[in-house]
């Protein structure tokens, strides 16, 4: 099945046109040469994107079996957080205000304050079956996963922490509002992308309808109907300035399609 999606409404940064997206209803239906998207919380869509696909409702589920938690890759972070809270499961408190679906969270190894979604990961369901965590190269905001993620299993620990949940929530409250990807760049080792962007004079800098937030320079905000070119030109300017001044190659956390 295919559906038309308007990415200017669907994506978190509100940039992109109307695209045809193939909906995957079964493991056997995964199309070749397609990019599988989730909630489009970390995507910048160009005017000429690749073929796109997304998981259907079959992959939106949570099953708890003893000490194993199995979650479909289409399941939203908020649903996972609420399930963990209701079932007194620890280590998912950081998901309270991190948008996305499980597949995307694993793909980018999402996390906050030193925690990552891969910390308690056991195995991932791929088109080639279940593969153990050891088959993937997880590191800071990186998984190395190129294939489709259909589901995942985690080892659970009891003891949901409301204080940790509140700490993560307060951390997110300090982040800028508005249409954005969240963090635009990953932090270089031993430094912060926001500090570097601010130091080279780009905090609050505007190109077209896009700007680096005055509140946090690593947040690219679509404040006035920004286009793909507005956003990509701002991203490239930050890369250039930071490299010229510090010799550091900023890496985008955003996936550019």
From TrEMBL:
Keywords on record: Cell cycle, Cell division, Cell shape, Cell wall biogenesis/degradation, Cytoplasm, FAD, Flavoprotein, NADP, Oxidoreductase, Peptidoglycan synthesis
Main location: cytoplasm
Known cofactor(s): FAD
Subcellular location: Cytoplasm
Domain UDP-N-acetylenolpyruvoylglucosamine reductase C-terminal: 168-256
Transmembrane segments: none
InterPro entries, per database record: FAD-bd_PCMH-like_sf (IPR036318), FAD-bd_PCMH_sub2 (IPR016169), MurB (IPR003170), MurB_C (IPR011601), MurB_C_sf (IPR036635)
EC number assigned by the record: 1.3.1.98
Example GO molecular function: UDP-N-acetylmuramate dehydrogenase activity
Source superkingdom: Bacteria
NCBIfam families listed in its UniProt record: murB, PRK13904.1
Family from the record: Belongs to the MurB family.
Name of the protein described by the UniProt record: UDP-N-acetylenolpyruvoylglucosamine reductase
């Amino acid at each position: 099945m295919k559906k038309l999606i308007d990415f200017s409404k669907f994506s978190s940064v509100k940039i992109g046109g109307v695209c045809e997206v193939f909906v995957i209803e079964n493991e056997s239906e995964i199309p070749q040469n397609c990019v599988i998207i989730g909630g489009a919380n970390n995507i910048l869509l160009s005017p000429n994107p690749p073929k796109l696909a997304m998981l259907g409702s079959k992959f939106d589920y949570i099953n708890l079996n003893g000490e194993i938690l199995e979650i479909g890759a289409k399941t939203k972070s908020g649903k996972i957080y609420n399930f963990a809270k209701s079932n007194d499961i620890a280590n998912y408190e950081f998901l309270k205000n991190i948008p996305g679906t499980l597949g995307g969270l694993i793909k980018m190894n999402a996390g906050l304050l030193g925690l990552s979604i891969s910390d308690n990961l056991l195995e991932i369901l791929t088109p080639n079956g279940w593969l153990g965590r050891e088959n993937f190269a997880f590191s800071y905001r990186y998984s190395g996963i190129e294939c489709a993620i259909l589901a995942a299993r985690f080892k659970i620990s009891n003891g949901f922490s409301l204080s940790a949940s509140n700490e993560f929530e307060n951390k997110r409250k300090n982040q800028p509002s508005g249409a954005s990807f969240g963090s635009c760049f990953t932090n270089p080792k031993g430094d912060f992308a926001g500090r570097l962007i601010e130091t080279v004079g780009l905090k609050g800098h505007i190109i077209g309808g896009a700007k680096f937030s005055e509140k946090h320079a690593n947040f690219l905000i679509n404040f006035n109907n920004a286009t793909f070119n507005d956003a990509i030109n701002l991203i490239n300017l930050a890369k250039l300035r930071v490299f010229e001044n510090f010799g550091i190659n900023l890496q985008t956390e955003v996936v550019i399609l």
